[in-house]
Write a structure and sequence with these properties.
The complex is a heterodimer of chains A (372) and B (167). Chain A has 372 residues and is mainly beta. Chain A has four helices and 27 strands. In chain A, strands 22, 23, 24, 25 and 26 form a five-stranded antiparallel β-sheet that branches. In chain A, strands 1, 2, 3 and 27 form a four-stranded antiparallel β-sheet that branches. By secondary structure, chain B is an all-alpha fold. Chain B has seven helices and no strands. Classes of the chains: A mainly beta (372), B mainly alpha (167). At the A-B interface, helix 1, helix 2, helix 4, strand 22 and strand 23 of A face helix 1, helix 2, helix 3, helix 4 and helix 5 of B.
Chain lengths: 372, 167
């Protein structure tokens, strides 16, 4: 397999661009963008009233438009929705590439902009973000050597140095700890890539991070992931199994002691609120013919035994599950050719149980915990 | 945009959309995201059309910079729906398909910046200095990102070859 050939094959696979009038759509989008920027507060208020009628299950929150930073459209258009413990919004900032994450504070209607991706804690009170990448930090072998924990209530920030470097941060469910993944600086002699060394724990208010070595070994193949995540008070991670080319999912205490493991059910995308179920992703040979019979399948499995409890259809337009809505339902984004999308609630088999939004522009959605 | 500028913009898009879409697809690996990315880049180009001297270069640079910026963040938890894809024949053997899909998956696991660096270096054949200019970073960053991306690809997809790129 040659890298250039792979890219060339991708270019051929791309086929023809959409048949729609691309120029016309771009010009129309430009006009819409400019119109949105010029909307008056009166229009926003009227829109909020309409939204309240068409989204009876949600709680539209309409910020006063003049408070938005320039070039940041509030999406879905002009508001956020609140469902099942999350504020859901779609954000984009086409005029400020690289400007980072924009969080809308519903109390003030203003945005707070972080220089890079920020991860909000489950209680909605804190956010963690890595040091913005610079030429110096990027030439080093480690992903980041410093993170900042921001208190979203007081505005105070705490910088924590990471002498081991870390990546892929995740908040614990109680918002008390952040876990990050530590990779080796030198290439692994077996895999040729970075080797996972363990995880680092960061606690707001504590300057000294804790490094916890976890010797799992890596496991290859498409259904693997280096990142550690949380299941309740435990940290989980994928590692090599005892047999060649096998992976196991292991739960660790915060001291690094293994509490249990099971054959890897796939890449863990999210854990249900009570920790009993996992949404996992598998790449497997059951896809559409135009992809050579290989496709992505999402499954819901028991977190303790790995038993399969539900599966989304292997392919089609049933949507992509994004987050747990409650213990039995998932937020799922349905899309049509990338131009229109809507959010629905689905059960563990991908069956739609409730439509949450109308069809609208396709958006990257953020699920921000509302907090207690 | 006046009528003449709009006519020229439409003419440019009609002539270059296929090539630009292919680049967007190589960058994203996803039909819908490629469509979305190109649409966003064209909209930005239209917004600055009067000041754009080389539209093709402008759109290409915008595609790369949008891709490595905040556009489509949090990809791990935000994948696009498969939707409806154009059907096309797959002439390769099953093994080749599995290898290629493994490679696609490995590419998908790269950060947008790492993938963009590889596309610029090994698909567009740009030297490190020009890659740095397109992405707005240092040559050192290009080197480290390339090394990290290749290492990550090897860790995930196993053995593959890369042809010597321009220094």
């Amino acid at each position: 397999m040659n890298l250039r050939e792979t890219f060339e094959f991708l270019a051929v696979e791309a086929g023809d661009p959409p048949q729609e009038d691309l120029a016309g759509r771009a010009l129309a989008q430009l006009r819409r963008d400019r119109a949105v920027k010029g909307l008056s507060a009166a229009v926003v208020v009227a829109t909020a009233a309409v939204l309240a009628l068409v989204w009876p299950g949600g709680t539209p929150r309409t910020p006063p438009l003049p408070a938005d930073p320039p070039g940041v459209p509030a999406l879905p258009p002009g508001h956020e929705l609140t469902f099942g413990g999350y504020r859901i919004g779609g954000y984009d900032n086409p005029d400020q590439p690289g400007a980072g994450t924009h969080l809308l504070d519903p109390r003030t209607g203003t945005y707070r902009t972080f220089p890079v991706d920020a991860l909000v804690s489950p209680d909605g009170r804190k956010a963690v973000y890595p040091k913005p990448l610079t030429a110096d930090s990027e030439t080093g072998p480690l992903p980041t050597d410093q993170v900042t924990i921001a208190d979203l209530v007081t505005g105070q920030e705490q910088k924590i140095a990471l002498p081991w470097g870390a990546t892929d941060f995740a908040w614990s469910p109680d918002s008390g700890t952040v876990v990050g993944t530590v990779l080796s600086a030198a290439a692994d002699p077996v895999t040729g890539g970075s080797r996972r060394l363990g995880f680092v724990l960061l606690r707001p208010g504590t300057e000294q991070p804790t490094f916890v070595p976890v010797n799992t070994g890596g496991c290859g193949g498409p259904n693997t992931d280096d990142a550690f995540g949380w299941r309740g008070g435990e940290v989980y991670g994928l590692g090599a199994g005892t047999a060649p080319n096998t992976c196991v999912l292991t739960y660790y205490g915060v001291d690094g002691a293994a509490h249990g493991s099971l054959p890897s059910p796939g890449v863990v995308m999210s854990v249900s609120p009570d920790g009993s179920l996992l949404l996992v992703r598998n790449l497997e040979k059951s896809g559409p013919p135009w992809k050579g019979g290989v496709g992505t399948r999402y499954r819901v499995v028991d977190a303790t035994t790995g038993r399969r409890l539900g599966a989304f259809p292997a392919y089609g337009s049933t949507g992509v599950p994004l987050a747990w809505m409650d213990g039995r339902h998932l937020f799922t984004q349905q899309g049509v050719k990338g131009t229109r999308a809507r959010l629905v609630a689905s059960d563990v088999n991908g069956r739609v149980t409730r439509v949450l939004t109308r069809w609208g522009p396709y958006l990257d959605l953020q699920f921000i915990p509302v907090g207690p | 945009m006046d009528a003449e500028a709009e006519r020229r913009f439409r003419e440019f898009v009609a002539g270059r959309s296929a090539a630009l879409f292919r680049l967007a697809y190589v960058l994203t690996g996803d039909y819908h995201q490629a469509e979305d990315l190109l649409q966003t880049a064209l909209t930005r180009t239209a917004a600055h059309w009067r000041r754009v001297e080389d539209p093709d270069a402008y759109v290409r640079t915008t595609l790369y910079r949008l891709r490595i910026s905040g556009w489509r963040r949090h990809a791990r938890h935000r994948e696009t729906s498969p939707g409806v894809l154009p059907e096309r024949p797959v002439p390769d053997s099953a093994d080749q398909v599995v290898l290629r899909v493994g490679m696609y998956e490995a590419l998908r696991r790269l950060t947008p910046k790492q993938r963009a660096v590889l596309v610029l270096r090994y698909f567009e054949d740009l030297p490190e200095r020009e890659v740095a200019e397109v992405l707005g970073c240092s040559v050192g960053t290009v080197r480290s990102q390339t090394a990290r991306a290749l290492a990550k690809l090897r860790a995930t997809a196993g053995d593959f070859t890369v042809e010597e790129a321009q220094p």
